Amino acid sequence: MMPVAPRRKLDPNARVGEWTAPDGWRHRRFDWPAADDRRRLLFQTGRADMFEKYLDAFEHFHAQGWSITAFDWRGQGGSGRLAEDDTGHIEDFGTLVDDLAAFWRDWHRPGARHAVLGHSMGGFLTLRALAEGRFAPDAAVLVAPMLGLRAPMGAVLGHRLATWMAGWGDPRRPAWRRGESARAARQRQQRLTHDITCFAEQQAWRRDNPQLCLGSPSWSWVAQAFAATAALRADPRLSAITTPVQFVLADADRLVDARMAAAVATRLPHAEVVRFGPESAHEILREIAPVRARAYAAIDGFLDRVAP
Fold first, then answer.
1. Distance of CA 173 to CAs 152, 179, 302, Å?
2. Residue 239 class from Cβ within 10 Å (0-12 exposed, 13-18 middle, 19+ buried)?
3. What domain count does the chain have?
4. Which end of the chain is more exposed for a tag (fewer CB within 10 A), N or C?
5. Where is each Serine aminopeptidase S33 domain found (predicted)?
């Protein structure tokens, strides 16, 4: 089945509501039930995303018979902020893992088949939750997972710089300023996707819904991302994950390190890897049509095998 064109309107049968974490934090959630609710897909996005960015992906998987659920991560989208401005801040990614595990407990339905799809930061948090035994879905798909950051000076020096900057001054301050010029937008588009339409859709959401948009990450976020991904790559519990996991990677990714993700995949007992070359940037499910078609076909085949 060819992927549908990007779209920005909610299906009339979809619902936007709230979920409250055990500590009282209110998260914005999305639910689109299928006619048969026995196949349930939790779709979790990356840093600074809101779930509307993936409405076209939701439509694709819903057409395959999946009930779709998503929630905006704490601190972004419609789930509040962890800094006083629009800076994307975090002090401990464990808080987001706790949110994911608690949401799973509320969302899980006995007798149904459950899958999780995590993009970028969502992929990292999904794999960490699996390694920590916080949930056990029937299948997990990690699309361009954040298992290592790309840095101009390399991961080691990048980690040291971010740690030093987070400890010097306010760790909530932005690590860089988001440029709003046409050139800056073009550079962002090249890092994210070759599909101009998909990127224009994202820009339209930012213009129309500024309250859902997040700015640059804080120095604390960057330092924590380096440290937390390194810790997960070294976690011996990866080899004990029993859930079948599919890694969908873009070798030309300029935001996360696909080589590190591929190395992690070799340590999981039930993992498979789908790789793209220079035809794909970071947002594989928002890429040009041939990339999306191949990615959807691979994911559909995997889910049909392991979570029929």
1. 20, 16, 41
2. exposed
3. 1
4. C
5. 38-287
Those residues with Cβ within 8 angstroms of residue 21's Cβ, 6 or more apart along the chain or in another chain: 27, 74, 98, 99, 102, 103
Q: How many residues does the chain have?
A: 308
Q: Which DSSP string corresponds to 7-28?
A: --SPPTT-EEEEEE-TTS-EEE
Query: Which run of H or E residues covers position 227?
Result: helix 219-233
* Residue 8 resides in a domain: no
Domain assignment of residue 10, yes or no: no
Q: In terms of residue numbers, what domain contains 148?
A: 15-306
Residue 176 lies in a domain: yes
216: in domain: yes
DSSP string, 161-205: HHHHHHHSS-TTSBSSPPP-SHHHHHHHHHHH-S-HHHHHHHHHH
CB 228 within 8 A of CB 146: no
Instruction: List, for the chain, all residue ranges whose pLDDT scores fall below the cut of 70.
Output: 1-8
Q: Is 138 helix (H, G, I), strand (E, B) or coil?
A: coil
**Angle between helix 258-265 and 219-233 (nearest 10):** 30
CB 145 within 8 A of CB 247: yes
For residue 132, give the CATH number of its domain. Answer: 3.40.50.1820
Neighbouring-strand partners of residue 70: 30
Amino acid at 182: A
Reported as a single tens digit per residue, the pLDDT across 135-182 is 999 999 999 999 999 987 778 888 888 889 889 889 999 988 877 778
- Sequence-distant (6+) residues with CB within 8 A of 273 are 246, 247, 249, 262, 265
pLDDT at 3: 52
Short-list 120, 81, 130, CA closest to 238:
130
